[in-house]
């Protein structure tokens, strides 16, 4: 039965992500068509076409590799314009008098050739009568709406899911009871953080807490002469003590006792939000705690998403380093960090393990899966707003620069500088695309070779 639940969890997650991808592309396609643009293709996935149907001027379909999707909007790249005459490379007219622009290929360098080839490929889709429907000719604000539509849909999906969870189930966290910490559990042995959950072996040393004689129910009163008033204070003192001597005062059944030991140094998460490992002092106890539940509506959800956005921007800045860590873990040079990024393969695996977990109530499984889908959507949305081609944010940045440049020229009484030629940024786009491909492959391999698992 667990295999059935595992498969169900994977299928639900994958289908949810594919639906999200489809809605993302609709976020581009619908406004593009509303603004009169020509959309020739709408596909979910990449690679060989599995199924497609043409409706009107648009081909709709599904491809074999479900790792994304795309919408083909005609006229994304403008033709080359002569710097002196301001005339496009070559202009001809069809029998009806419609202007048709042809792009000459250039052989004056690698990057120039790449740009020229991209223009040529782009303009193969331009037909007579399309002159007024080309994307690059749209007003800048329409370009922003079209390109922002996709990632905005992902963020909207995340908001709807988060709102539903926060308003009903609530945001839940395990909080230590107020006042002096009461010991809930004492770890029998020192196990590396990345191996937590396994049983002790004869090679694992006892924890300092065991050596100090601590037991569940003991009330901590002091640490190295400092009076203890809260778990947070006690935890900070332990972490800062590194491998130093530790004199622990505690009460048991109303009797004041003292335990002596030395804390050991172990790699532990830097904080509750930052899971990167830091060498800190370790004792081996957990406090008596309770589940704190906070429920809220739209404002609370937006506040939470604001914090998530900040964390996401920080994570994007560390993404190359994190992926490098996954690559090192694949070849056995280090353990995989618990906060390392995962691909859709890893997300599906985590979804399957959650669905099959025997100790999780149905409600918690459902909430976890919903939050997993919402988290992926939020990250995809934020990632696509990064102002680099080929991401949506690169096109948005180009449209905003066009608006700024034209406004500045108008204020100075100078001629209209015309459209921003995003084709000139294609070399950067190719580098970014290759980097994204490499990171994607590393994460997929990592999720197969050194996968992350949910905590037991």
TrEMBL record:
Highest taxon of the lineage: Bacteria
Primary localization class, coarse: membrane
Entry keywords, A to Z: Hydrolase, Membrane, Metalloprotease, Protease, Transmembrane, Transmembrane helix, Zinc
Record-linked CDD domains: S2P-M50_PDZ_RseP-like
Compartment(s) of residence: Membrane
Presence of keyword Protease: yes
Protein name per Swiss-Prot or TrEMBL: Site-2 protease family protein
Family indicated by similarity: Belongs to the peptidase M50B family.
PDZ domain mapped to chain residues: 161-254
Source organism of this protein record: Nocardioides islandensis
Recorded GO MF terms: metalloendopeptidase activity
């Amino acid at each position: 039965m667990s295999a059935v639940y595992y498969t169900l969890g994977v299928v639900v997650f994958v289908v949810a992500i594919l639906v999200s991808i489809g809605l993302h592309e609709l976020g581009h396609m619908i406004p593009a068509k509303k603004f009169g643009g020509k959309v020739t293709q709408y596909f979910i996935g990449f690679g060989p076409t599995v199924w497609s149907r043409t409706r009107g001027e648009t081909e709709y379909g599904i491809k074999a590799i479900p790792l994304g999707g795309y919408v083909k909007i005609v006229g994304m790249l403008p033709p080359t314009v002569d710097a002196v005459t301001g005339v496009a490379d070559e202009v001809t007219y069809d029998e009806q008098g419609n202007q048709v622009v042809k792009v000459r290929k250039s052989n004056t360098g690698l990057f120039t050739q790449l740009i020229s080839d991209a223009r040529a490929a782009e303009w193969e889709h331009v037909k007579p009568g399309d002159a007024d429907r080309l994307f690059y000719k749209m007003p800048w604000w329409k370009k922003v709406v079209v390109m922002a539509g996709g990632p905005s849909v992902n963020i909207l999906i995340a908001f709807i899911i988060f709102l539903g969870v926060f308003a009903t189930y609530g945001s839940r966290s395990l909080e230590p009871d107020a006042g002096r910490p009461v010991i809930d559990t004492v770890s029998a042995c020192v196990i590396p953080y990345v191996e937590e959950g396994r049983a002790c072996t004869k090679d694992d040393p006892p924890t300092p807490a065991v050596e100090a004689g601590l037991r569940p129910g003991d009330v901590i009163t002091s640490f190295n002469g400092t009076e203890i008033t809260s778990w947070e204070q006690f935890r900070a003192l332990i972490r800062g003590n590194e491998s130093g001597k530790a004199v622990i005062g505690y009460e048991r059944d109303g009797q004041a006792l003292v335990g002596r030991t030395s804390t050991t140094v172990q790699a532990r998460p830097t904080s509750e939000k930052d899971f990167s490992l830091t060498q800190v002092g370790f004792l081996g106890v957990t406090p008596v705690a309770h589940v704190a539940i906070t429920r809220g509506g739209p404002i609370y959800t937006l506040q939470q998403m604001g914090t998530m956005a900040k964390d996401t921007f920080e994570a994007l800045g560390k993404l190359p380093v994190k992926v490098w860590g996954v690559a090192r873990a694949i070849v056995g040079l280090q353990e995989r960090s618990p906060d390392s990024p995962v691909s859709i393969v890893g997300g599906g695996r985590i979804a399957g393990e959650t669905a099959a977990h025997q100790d999780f109530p149905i409600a918690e499984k459902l909430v976890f899966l919903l939050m997993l889908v919402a988290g992926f959507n939020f990250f995809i949305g934020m990632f696509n707003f990064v102002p680099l081609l080929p991401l949506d944010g690169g096109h948005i940045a180009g449209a905003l620069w066009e608006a700024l440049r034209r406004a500045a020229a108008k204020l100075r009484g100078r001629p209209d500088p015309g459209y921003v030629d995003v084709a000139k940024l294609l070399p950067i786009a190719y580098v970014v695309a290759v980097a994204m491909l490499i990171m994607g492959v590393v994460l997929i391999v990592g999720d197969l070779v050194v996968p992350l698992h949910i905590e037991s």
